[in-house]
Write a structure and sequence with these properties.
8 helices; mainly alpha; 0% strand; Annexin V, domain 1
Length: 240
């Protein structure tokens, strides 16, 4: 007699009862072992999370409401005191480092402001130094020009003094004799001699000269008188 196929495989097929239908019994024997383990693990994890949340809530409430210090409590436990002391020291060092960093940052900011102010001051001083150097160059140029003009005036004064000495010699001569000498001398020299002579003598000499020659001498005398006025003004300015 032949056996059924399920008997040959060593398994007995039992009729399956759909879920939710009458006649099905949900027992722990019907649940696989892996599923039971996962359910238990999830249940234990949920309970642990709930206990940890309650513990953290209690610690937080004690800290903020009652002023309770968990570190002080932990330090009183045997064997944990040194660890808590080291932890507290680390916190204190971190706080001191944070304050030191703040102080360093503030000092760096102050030093940067000082550096910027010094840079502005240096720029201003450089501008003033440039202006002073330009004024110094202009003043040196004016002094050089004044020295040149003064040298020319000194030269003119020396020439005038020479002409006056010559004129003093002419004072012992008659106007006609002076006119004969000046008629052959340069016009500038004749003018300087006449400027050094008394007015009456100079007029007599001009009257004895050729009218054209006399006019030329008078023009040079006028120019020499103007230069002499300028020289006197320069001397007064130097004396001031």
């Amino acid at each position: 007699m032949a056996l059924p196929a399920d008997r040959v495989a060593g398994r007995v097929n039992e009729p399956r009862i759909p879920r939710g239908q009458p006649g099905r019994k949900a027992t722990m024997a019907n649940v696989p072992q892996g599923r039971r383990w996962r359910r238990s693990r999830f249940l234990v994890s949920g309970v642990l999370l709930m206990l940890i949340s309650l513990l953290l809530g209690a610690v937080t409430g004690g800290v903020y409401l009652l002023g309770w210090d968990p570190l002080e409590w932990a330090g009183s436990l045997p064997g944990i005191g040194p660890v808590v002391s080291t932890y507290r020291m680390g916190l204190q060092i971190q706080a001191e480092l944070a304050e030191a960093k703040k102080g360093i940052a503030a000092e760096m900011t102050r030093l940067e402001q000082i550096r910027q102010e010094l840079a502005k001051e240096q720029e201003r001083l450089q501008g003033e130094a440039f202006s002073l150097e330009r004024e110094r160059a202009e003043l040196a140029q004016e002094r050089a020009e004044l020295a040149r003009e003064r040298a020319e005036l000194v030269k003119l004064q020396d020439e005038l003094e020479l002409q006056r000495r010559i004129a003093r010699i002419y004072q012992y001569m008659r106007p006609a004799e002076i006119a004969e000498i000046l008629a052959v001398r340069p016009v500038e020299e004749a003018a300087q001699v006449l400027l050094a002579l008394p007015e009456e003598t100079a007029g007599a000499v001009l009257a004895a000269l050729n009218p054209l020659r006399a006019a030329m001498v008078l023009e040079v005398m006028r120019s020499s008188a103007a230069k002499a006025d300028v020289s006197e003004v320069g001397d007064e300015a130097d004396a001031f």
